[in-house]
Structure formats: structure tokens, C-alpha cells
TrEMBL record:
This protein's record includes keyword Ribosomal protein: no
Protein name: DUF3526 domain-containing protein
Organism the protein comes from: Terrimonas rubra
A Pfam family: DUF3526
Keywords for the protein's UniProt record, in alphabetical order: Membrane, Transmembrane, Transmembrane helix
Coiled-coil ranges (or none): none
Top-level lineage group: Bacteria
UniProt cross-references to InterPro entries, sorted A to Z: DUF3526
Transmembrane segments: 21-38, 125-150, 171-199, 211-231, 238-256, 443-462
Length: 471
């Protein structure tokens, strides 16, 4: 009997011209979003490959020079694109795609799409994920708001119940009728996106991440289907039901995410870029404790080395003191950057944790966080990219400083030149993307939130089936 109800609902959908136009609109927007994202990621990948190859060639072909000057030639690290970026680009749109690496400083990410775009980007980047998160939930409302009260207004509800189906079964049949329409859409859309991305970007499919993404988006569709049918069963008139559902949609998908983001920013504020850079400069110059200046640290290191090697001057040391002190300065500045960047990263993580907690009232917030994490475009993956690039920067700067220390004489800054082999000994940047298992611990609260939404709505619909009486 439930199957007959579902088939009958689908028959009604096929006869409603308004729904046909809405479905056509969904398919058109989905196709545009997919084409837009595939085109963007394809161009971005081509640009990244060309830029990284050119950067490597320039590094290897630079003229022979002093190791420290060669280090200042610098290098670029580029994010490694993920196949699922074609579905959900996440924070990568806003944080940038590359970072310039040089001695003495840890630079910010460069060339984000957000820097190039107008204020329209604040409303979201057009992508398949945005279509599934916002547009699909809105269309579920359109299909479900009159599912029960519409039968009552037409007087067909008693006829349906007289066929031997309970009201509870009717509620769940109506829910699955709506859900299956969009479940088919989500399944096909994800598969097309993944296959097209794998072909266009010449990369392998990620079955585990793709299945998990399908699972959470399916849960999201089921949540809105349950909510739509429940409200339709509680509110007598269809006009009132759609008004309530649209208010729920606006609150959970538009207002609440903005509110929780503002609350998180106020509770865990970030320092301004000027203050951040000023703090770092002061800490390097005056010391982390404010009482150990750069010159005092250098003098202390010099005295310790003279005492250790029992010599009278740095010229008598068995290595080039200039290279040694250069590396000691790098290591101290790294401690400074670790401290202040660590504070920034900690604040950002606390902001996200608070948003996830406050966002339990919105399945959209939970889905967005899970989707970005699964697509390797979350806060944690952006921080990880910064840390991988920074580790590479420290390694290649240290290698050149050590070459200066071990192979040059004191005072030979203007005469000593590094060998060509040294350029080749420094490998190219290799940024690694992590599997889903690495990201999963960061989205446990969001998974719990979605599960809670599902359970609460299933219980409410179940109880509604028991409490029904003709009105």
C-alpha cells in the first residue's frame, strides 16, 4: 500500500506543470553550476601546473650565487586540487591557492578568488554543493508543504485511510515520495560530477569520500522531507504550512549561519593583520619575553661557541659563523611564527567548534562543514596546507644556510657561490591531500547534529501518526 501511495504521488507530480517547471529550473541551475565549477577547476589546475613547473625551472636555472641570496630567490607552494573540489570548493575560494616561501618570514596565502570578486561572492560561490544545500531543500518544501493538508482540503484523506493504510504509514509514504525524487537527483548529480571531474582533471575517483558525501546529502534531503510532511500534517491550511517552512528555511539556511559566525567571531576574535605583523616583528627584534633582543641573542650564541670550541674569535671556528648565526635566527623566528600563527589557528578552530555547537539548530551548517571536510576544502585542510608549505620553507632555507656554514669561509659573503648541484638537491614542493579518515574527527559534532535532526523528526512524525484525529 505504501508503494501505491508513492506511485500515486509521483503521478501527481508528473501532472503538475508548475512542478515540471521547477524541476527544469533545478536541472538548468545544476548544469550551470557544474559547468562553472568544472571550468574553473580545470583552468585552475592548468594554471597551477604551469606555474609550479615554471617556478621549479626558474629555481634550477638561476645563476650561481651566495646560498642566502639563492634562498631569497624563493619558491612557491601550490595547493593540490582534490577531485571533490569540483563539487564543493569550500574555503579554498576564500583562502587562496598558493604561498610564497622565502627566508625570515612566513607569508600568507595568495591569489584567492575572493580577492578578485565583488561582494556577490559573500552570498556563496556557485557550485554543485550550493545547489544541493540551498536549492534542493527549497524545492523539497515546494513538494511537501501540501502533502497532508492538501488531502484534507480536497477531502481525499478519509478515502486514503479507508484503503487500509494507517495515518502513520501515510505520513512516511508521503515523506519517501518526496525524498526519492531528490534522492535520485542527488545520486545522479554526484556521480556525474565525480566522473566528469575525474576525466577532466585526470585523477582517480575516491569511492569512500564520494559514498560518504552521498550519504550525508541524502540525510539532508530526508531531514527536509520529514520536516515538510510533518508541518503539512500539523497546519491545516497549505498557505500557512508553506509560510512556516519558508521561515524555517530562511532561519536555518540564511540567518542562523550568519548569526553563529558573528557570535563565534566576537567570542574568539582575531587580531588585525597590522597588529599581527607588528607583534611578530617586535617578538623577533625584542625576544618572545620582551627582554632578549636580537643582538643580545646573537652575542650570547657567539660567546657560547667561543667557549665551547676554546677560540678567541668567530674566524677561528671550524665552520662559518655567519651561516650558523643565520640558521639560529631562522629557528628563532620560526618559534615566533609558531607562537603567533598557532594562536590564530587556535582561534579559528575555536570559532569553528562554537559554530558547530550553535549550528546544531541548522542542518545546513552541519552539512556544509561535513561537505567541505570531505572535499578537502575545510578549515583544517587549509591550515594543514599552510603547515606543509611552512615545513618545506624551513627545510630548504636550513639546507642553504648549512651549505653556507659548512662550505664557505667567514667574511666570504660577496665571493662564495653555491654549486649547481645544491639547487637540484632541494626537491620540489609536494603538497599532500589527506584521506577522509584524517578529516573525520573534526566533523564528529556535525555528524551528531545531522543524526539528531533525523531522529527527532522521525520520532515527531511517528508520534504525529499516533495522535492524528480528523479536524
Amino acid at each position: 500500500m505504501i508503494q501505491r501511495i508513492i506511485k500515486n504521488e509521483w503521478l501527481q507530480y508528473s501532472r503538475d506543470k508548475r512542478l515540471k517547471w521547477l524541476i527544469c529550473f533545478l536541472l538548468l541551475i545544476s548544469a550551470i553550476a557544474l559547468w562553472h565549477q568544472l571550468d574553473f577547476q580545470s583552468q585552475l589546475q592548468t594554471t597551477r601546473k604551469e606555474a609550479q613547473q615554471k617556478s621549479r625551472e626558474e629555481w634550477l636555472s638561476q645563476e650561481l650565487k651566495h646560498p642566502h641570496i639563492a634562498a631569497h630567490f624563493g619558491n612557491y607552494a601550490y595547493k593540490k586540487p582534490s577531485l571533490l573540489h569540483c563539487f564543493d570548493p569550500g574555503l579554498s575560494i576564500y583562502t587562496g591557492t598558493s604561498v610564497y616561501m622565502e627566508p625570515h618570514r612566513q607569508n600568507d596565502l595568495l591569489f584567492s578568488k575572493g580577492q578578485e570578486s565583488d561582494t556577490g561572492l559573500r552570498f556563496g560561490w556557485l557550485s554543485p554543493a550550493l545547489v544541493c544545500q540551498l536549492l534542493v531543500s527549497l524545492l523539497i518544501i515546494v513538494l511537501s508543504f501540501g502533502s497532508i493538508n492538501g488531502e484534507q482540503e480536497k477531502g481525499t484523506l478519509p478515502l486514503l485511510l479507508s484503503q487500509g493504510i494507517s495515518f502513520r504509514q501515510l505520513l512516511f509514504a508521503k515523506t519517501f515520495a518526496v525524498f526519492l525524487v531528490f534522492e535520485i537527483f542527488i545520486t545522479v548529480y554526484l556521480l556525474i560530477t565525480a566522473i566528469a571531474a575525474a576525466w577532466l582533471l585526470s585523477t582517480d575517483l575516491i569511492p569512500g569520500s564520494l559514498f560518504y558525501l552521498w550519504l550525508v546529502y541524502s540525510a539532508y534531503c530526508l531531514i527536509w522531507s520529514l520536516l515538510g510532511v510533518y508541518v503539512s500534517s500539523k497546519i491545516k491550511h497549505a498557505g500557512g504550512a508553506i509560510a512556516v517552512l519558508l521561515l524555517c528555511w530562511m532561519f536555518t539556511n540564511i540567518l542562523l549561519p550568519r548569526i553563529v559566525a558573528n557570535v563565534a567571531e566576537n567570542v574568539f576574535p582575531l587580531t588585525t593583520n597590522y597588529q599581527f605583523r607588528r607583534q611578530i616583528a617586535d617578538a623577533i627584534e625584542k625576544g618572545l619575553d620582551g627582554h632578549n633582543t636580537q643582538s643580545e641573542r646573537a652575542k650570547q650564541i657567539e660567546q657560547e661557541l667561543l667557549s665551547k670550541y676554546k677560540v678567541d674569535s668567530v674566524e677561528q671556528l671550524p665552520f662559518n659563523f655567519e651561516g650558523y648565526i643565520m640558521q639560529q635566527g631562522e629557528e628563532y623566528s620560526s618559534k615566533v611564527y609558531d607562537k603567533f600563527w598557532g594562536e590564530v589557528f587556535l582561534s579559528l578552530k575555536k570559532q569553528k567548534q562554537l559554530q558547530s555547537l550553535l549550528g546544531l539548530g541548522s542542518p545546513f551548517v552541519a552539512l556544509r562543514n561535513i561537505s567541505m571536510a570531505t572535499s578537502n576544502a575545510s578549515l583544517e585542510t587549509e591550515i594543514d596546507f599552510q603547515e606543509q608549505a611552512e615545513q618545506y620553507r624551513r627545510d630548504f632555507v636550513q639546507e642553504l644556510n648549512n651549505d653556507m656554514r659548512d662550505n664557505s669561509a667567514y667574511g666570504s659573503f660577496n665571493s662564495y657561490k653555491v654549486s649547481k648541484d645544491k639547487y637540484h638537491s632541494i626537491g620540489d614542493v609536494e603538497i599532500k591531500n589527506h584521506p577522509l579518515a584524517w578529516s573525520f574527527p573534526h566533523i564528529v559534532p556535525d555528524n551528531v547534529g545531522l543524526i539528531c535532526w533525523l531522529l527527532v523528526l522521525i520520532i515527531l512524525l511517528y508520534k504525529r501518526g499516533n495522535a492524528f484525529s480528523y479536524r
